[in-house]
Amino acid sequence: MIVMKFGGTSVGSAKNIRAVADIIEKKDGRKIIVVSAMAGITDSLSKIAHRIIDLPNSVIKKEANQFIKEIKEKHTSTAKELIQDKRVLMESISKIEELSGKLETVLLGVGYLEDLSPKSMDYILSFGERFSITIISSVLESKDLKAKALTGYEAGIVTDSNFGRAHPIHSILARNIREKINPLLEDDVIPVISGFIAANSDGTITTLGRGGSDYTASLLGRYLKASEVQIWTDVDGILTTDPKIVPEARLIPTLSYIEAVDLAYFGAKVIHSKMIEPAMDVNIPVRIKSTFNPEGRGTLIVSKQEKIEHVIKAVTAQQDVGIVNLKGVGMIETPNISGKLFSLLGGKNINILMISGSSESNLSFVIKKSFIDEAVETISTGFGDNSIRSLEVVEDICIITVVGVGMQGAKGLAAKVFQAVADVDVNIIMIAQGSSEVNISFIVNEGDREKVVKTLHKRFIEDVG
Ligand code: ASP
Ligand code: MG
Question: Is 42 a pocket residue for ligand 1 (Cβ < 6 Å)?
Answer without folding.
Answer: yes
